[in-house]
From TrEMBL:
<keyword id="KW-0482">Metalloprotease</keyword>
<feature type="transmembrane region" description="Helical">
    <location>
        <begin position="287"/>
        <end position="310"/>
    </location>
</feature>
<feature type="binding site">
    <location>
        <position position="354"/>
    </location>
    <ligand>
        <name>Zn(2+)</name>
    </ligand>
</feature>
<dbReference type="InterPro" id="IPR001915">
    <property type="entry name" value="Peptidase_M48"/>
</dbReference>
<keyword id="KW-0812">Transmembrane</keyword>
<feature type="transmembrane region" description="Helical">
    <location>
        <begin position="102"/>
        <end position="127"/>
    </location>
</feature>
<feature type="transmembrane region" description="Helical">
    <location>
        <begin position="176"/>
        <end position="198"/>
    </location>
</feature>
<feature type="domain" description="Peptidase M48">
    <location>
        <begin position="206"/>
        <end position="408"/>
    </location>
</feature>
<keyword id="KW-0472">Membrane</keyword>
<feature type="domain" description="CAAX prenyl protease 1 N-terminal">
    <location>
        <begin position="34"/>
        <end position="203"/>
    </location>
</feature>
<feature type="transmembrane region" description="Helical">
    <location>
        <begin position="65"/>
        <end position="90"/>
    </location>
</feature>
<dbReference type="Pfam" id="PF16491">
    <property type="entry name" value="Peptidase_M48_N"/>
</dbReference>
<keyword id="KW-0645">Protease</keyword>
<keyword id="KW-0479">Metal-binding</keyword>
<keyword id="KW-0378">Hydrolase</keyword>
<dbReference type="InterPro" id="IPR032456">
    <property type="entry name" value="Peptidase_M48_N"/>
</dbReference>
<comment type="similarity">
    <text>Belongs to the peptidase M48 family.</text>
</comment>
Amino acid sequence: MMEQILFYLIIAFVVFEYATDLCLDWLNRRSWSHEVPEPIRDVYDADTFENHKRYRRVNFSFSQVSGAFSFVATLLVLSSGMLAMVDAWAASITLHPVGRGLLFFAIIGVAASFFNLPFSWYQTFVIEQRFGFNTTTRRTFITDLLKGALLSLLIGAPLMGGVMFLFEWLGEMFWVYAWLLISGFSVFMSMFYTSWILPMFNKQKPLDNGSLRDSIETFSLRSGFRLDNIYVMDGSKRSTKANAFFSGLGSRKRIVLYDTLIRDLTESEIVAVLSHEVGHYKLKHTLWGMLAGIAQTGVLLFLLSLFVTTPELTKALGGEGVQFHIGLVAFGLLFSPISLVIGLMTNGLSRRNEYAADRFAANHADGQALVSALKKLSVNSLGNPTPHPAYVWFHYSHPPLLQRIKALMS
């Protein structure tokens, strides 16, 4: 009886999540401006804005189709007992609980990758290609998939295997040691991702000596931020869109500029964007974000420990007894409403931090240059200048362009 209630709850949550996303998407669609908003008319001509609207219409239609397919596929998998069949197949190969769980997730992961492959291919080689964004070759696309699978095998599998081993060994108290394991891994990745993992996908090289580097170093001294590691990444290998990011802690901190950013922006605009990224570090957004993520992981693992030892959770998806891997899937689906609330909180905090980093950049570099850079980046990516407030509330980790401009100009 209890497993039936849990099953219907899972289905209800899946339907609720899909319906919520659908309503938000349509609200956002209706909020699109038919004319160029006044603050960005200096960078949007009529032809660019029309192209912008076509791009959004195409992406909206594509997201509706792909989302519907994903929703139907999820319902079919849950209602058909397919997860139990996959588990039985894994059990026919090995009865060891850790090996069985890893094989279960491997089968699901491969199936999900094949399901998503046509959509990812169409997005890259049809939509992005049509609007002039894609620079990814088919060879790069395929090698990215293979490298991602290799990383899952070499990093994801041992981490998941370690968590399952701790569960089999310690039972409900596994969450404490799993928390330590995952937290240590998160800190390690934050320090070494750009120097160890990212080079598998993109080349990085130190920024050459010259006027740009001199300007960056002058800003570094003025803001009291020691910046030795400035790298340029070949973002143009996959897209014409531009970006920059900050990573690492202590002596491992690193600023990475896309080569497209250097190509599209002026020197003062690049320094302004860079100062925004430095602002996150100086204001301790990076550190507090990592600590908040660690705390959130601890709470999630604690809640998991309370539910995953309940056999009804496994039975709700067709399993038998207490099985960590099936219980984990069921818990993840039941946790979705709480995850939605957490997402609202973290997105709200992130948007606040973005405003603070913008103010830092305006105070230590050039606020007007940052405004100009934000406009150009929005035009180059064909971003939506007028998203619906509800959509922003649920989905945006950064404030919309017009609100950022207004805050910087005030």
